[in-house]
Specification:
The complex is a heterodimer of chains A (245) and B (357). With 245 residues, chain A is an alpha/beta fold. Chain A has helices at residues 24-38, 72-82, 94-100, 102-111, 151-154, 160-165, 181-199, 214-217, 221-235, and strands spanning 44-48, 63-66, 87-93, 116-121, 171-177, 204-210, 239-242. Helix content of chain A is 37%, strand content 16%. Chain A has a seven-stranded mixed sheet with strand order 2-1-3-4-6-5-7, with helices on both faces. In chain A, strand 5 (171-177), helix 7 (181-199) and strand 6 (204-210) form a beta-alpha-beta unit. The N and C termini of chain A lie far apart (44 Å). Chain B has 357 residues and is of the alpha/beta class. Chain B folds into two domains: 4-238, Rossmann fold, CATH 3.40.50.970; 242-356, Rossmann fold, CATH 3.40.50. Chain B is 43% helix and 19% strand. Chain B has 13 helices and 15 strands. Chain B has helices at residues 8-18, 33-45, 56-68, 79-95, 121-126, 143-160, 170-174, 200-203, 218-238, 259-274, 292-299, 317-325, 344-356, and strands at 4-7, 23-26, 49-52, 74-77, 99-105, 136-138, 163-169, 176-179, 210-211, 242-245, 253-256, 279-284, 286-288, 306-311, 331-335. In chain B, helix 6 (143-160) links the parallel strand 6 (136-138) and strand 7. In chain B, 55% of the residues are buried. The chains are: A alpha/beta (245), B alpha/beta (357). Chains A and B meet through strand 1, strand 2, helix 2 and helix 4 of A and helix 3, helix 4, helix 8 and strand 9 of B. Strand 2 of chain A pairs parallel with strand 9 of chain B. The complex binds thiamine diphosphate, iron/sulfur cluster (SF4) and magnesium ion. Magnesium ion is lined by residues 51, 93-95, 122, 124-126, 133 of chain A.
């Protein structure tokens, strides 16, 4: 019998530093599978964020750049403009993209930059130890919102797909989740679709992935999956928000 | 090549192209927006890249992304914009990428003014961003030198794998002078396959390249900083550039001055000479590395009674002059930084009163 399951070539064989039950690893794997399927590893450059995935370059086996906090879309713009033949993706957390990097992502999307952004929404600042993110849910506890997010003071969580979809520039904008196999399969399709649009030089492409952060949510991995399904998915609906044409 | 009459800002843009830099990203700010207005027309003619970014913060990282691919790339800005780029400059230095930054300095702090200034000396030479890094900083005294230094900046950035800054000022950006673009200053780009993220296919390799500045292991981070330090030490040995003006004979005082200010000082020196008063000048062309020895030796001359740092800033370069003199001579400061530039008469008057005192 032949091999039916193995590590994608685009993933390195390094152990990740992610916490048990964290869904960052699933996101990495899906991207790597897509890179393999498209046969583009030799011309792909990833841009790592500042967040738990800062060392993503250790886990992929293609070229990688490490951005400053929030600036990955500007770096990807620089890469793609000077080397349009390269396939470029940014991998960014919600603090990175929706807070400090809000300006960079909106303008890259609005210019229709031909790269792909994978947006990891775990409703928290993972790396720095559980502070409130722009995506943290009302009432959700964080170290800087110890009694739960007070929307009177901090506003409502930002929905990036919806926000980016308002731009008149054509783009591919989708949100999927990494909470159950059926979602994971759809997430993979969305990532593949996003890379294909980039490959056809069609438009900016953006896939948000609802993730878990069991460590900073203070939950077991299983409870984290359930909490996300009950609380995040109703507020962050899954699906395609925008397609080019 | 024949000389052409060009505005400083436009000449800098053309010089970049002549140096083989076909990638330009920028955000508008007075007094340097003409670089972008020139290159938006010129880049398409050479199949180059022009992009107006959404902010200097973003532009800094567009430069980083492009430089990390191993491509020659430049941005131009002015003081408040360079403050915003300083985060990226620190990352670029830490990640060891060649890139060229031009600062056409205006008055500060804050929004300051739009007239010429040298108020960004500290920012340029002591590191505007965080961490242990330096820029190689060149300060032109006119349009011709701005062209030459811009052309030299790209190979120098590649030699040291780091950011190089051209520190001009609003006057150099705005004034028109006859210039030529010396072909011999074009140096072909180095091969960057051993580190650049230019794609494994392009370099025919199966080994990925990573461009980064994060080193959590203290020993590895220290090593990266030692590598950078070794480069700065090499710059101090190989890249110091300066002009000695009227220093062959005896002189009663030594001026240290750079950029636009040094042009005025030269006229003042010529005028004083006509009246029988000899004044020498050392003009640093590189601000980092700084011509310490040249200044030290010129100030040590028997006849030289006074040393004065004449700046369009409130006493910034004087700190490097002091350091150069190693306590053997005193140095005083003369300057203003609102946007007005001293006349040769004002400089001469000050120097003469200094000698008389
Ligand atoms: C300019 C700057 N400000 C703050 C930080 C500290 N910092 C590092 S990661 C991070 C938040 C990361 O959260 P997120 O983007 O949601 O990623 P996650 O770790 O959750 O995947 C912050 C605030 C930094 N590195 N740089
Ligand atoms: S802190 Fe959260 S996001 Fe970061 S690795 Fe751990 S579980 Fe994942
Ligand atoms: Mg997060």
């Amino acid at each position: 019998m032949g091999k039916i399951f193995s590590r994608p070539e685009a993933l390195s064989d390094n152990h990740t530093h992610y916490c048990p039950g964290c869904t960052h690893g699933i996101a990495h794997r899906l991207i790597a599978e897509v890179i393999d399927e498209l046969g583009i590893r030799g011309r792909t450059v990833g841009v790592a964020p500042v967040g738990c995935a800062v060392m993503a370059y250790n886990y992929f086996s293609c070229d990688f750049q490490e951005a400053a906090h929030g600036r990955a879309p500007a770096m990807a713009t620089g890469i793609k403009r000077v080397r349009p033949d390269l396939m470029v993706f940014t991998y960014q957390g919600d603090g990175d993209l929706a807070s400090i990097g809000m300006g960079e992502i909106i303008h890259a999307a609005n210019r229709g930059e031909k790269f792909t952004t994978i947006f990891i929404n775990n409703a928290i600042y993972g790396m720095t130890g559980g502070q409130m993110a722009p995506t943290t849910m009302p009432g959700q506890r964080a170290t800087t919102a110890p009694t739960g997010r007070n929307v009177e003071e901090t506003g409502m969580p930002i929905r990036m797909c919806e926000l980016l979809s308002t731009l008149a520039t054509p783009g591919y904008i989708a949100r999927q989740a990494l909470l159950r196999p059926k979602y994971v399969n759809k997430a993979k399709k969305a990532i593949l679709q996003a890379f294909e649009y980039q490959m056809a030089n069609k438009c900016f492409s953006f896939v948000e992935l609802i993730n878990t952060c069991p460590t900073n949510w203070g939950m077991t991995p299983l409870n984290a999956l359930k909490w996300a399904e009950d609380n995040l998915i109703p507020y962050y609906p899954l699906g395609e928000f925008k397609k080019p044409e | 090549m024949a000389k052409v009459l060009m505005k400083g800002n436009e000449a800098i843009g053309e010089a970049a192209i002549r140096a083989g830099c076909l990638n330009y990203f920028a955000y508008p700010i007075t007094p340097q927006s003409e670089v972008a207005e020139y290159l938006v027309k010129r880049m398409p003619e050479v199949n180059g890249v022009f992009l107006q970014g959404e902010s200097e913060v973003a532009v800094g990282y567009m430069i980083f992304g492009a430089a990390a691919c191993g491509e020659r790339v430049m941005t131009t800005s002015s003081s408040p914009g360079v403050s915003l780029m300083s985060e990226a400059i620190s990352y670029i230095a830490g990640a060891r990428c060649p890139a060229v930054f031009v600062n056409i300095v205006r008055g500060g702090p804050g929004l300051g003014g739009i007239l010429p200034s040298q108020g960004d000396y500290f920012q340029a030479t002591k590191g505007g961003g965080h961490g242990d890094y330096h820029l190689l900083v060149m300060a032109p005294d006119g349009v011709q030198e701005a062209v030459e230094m811009t052309m030299m900046a790209f190979p120098l950035a590649e030699k040291y794998r780091g950011p190089v800054m051209i520190l001009g000022d609003g006057l150099i950006g705005q004034m028109m002078e006859p210039v030529e673009f010396p072909d011999n200053l074009y140096v072909p780009p180095t091969n960057k396959d051993d580190w650049a993220t230019n794609g494994m296919d392009r370099r025919g390799s199966t080994k990925k390249n990573i461009v980064k500045s994060l080193y959590l292991d203290p020993k590895v981070l220290n090593q990266n900083n030692l590598t950078l330090k070794a480069q700065y030490d090499q710059m101090k040995r190989e890249e110091i550039r300066f002009e000695a003006y009227n220093t062959d004979g005896d002189y009663q005082a030594l001026i240290v001055s750079y950029g636009t200010m040094s042009r005025v000082c030269k006229t003042a020196i010529d005028n004083m000479k006509a009246q029988g008063l000899e004044i020498g000048m050392i003009r640093p062309k590189t601000l980092f590395p700084f011509p310490e020895k040249a200044i030290h030796d010129a100030a040590a001359k028997e006849s030289c009674k006074k040393v004065v740092s004449i700046e369009m800033s409130m006493g910034q370069m004087i700190e490097d002059v002091e350091r150069s003199l190693k306590g053997k001579r005193e140095v005083t400061w003369f300057g203003q930084c609102g946007g007005d530039i001293y006349t040769p008469e004002e400089v001469a008057e000050h120097v003469m009163s200094l000698i008389a005192s």
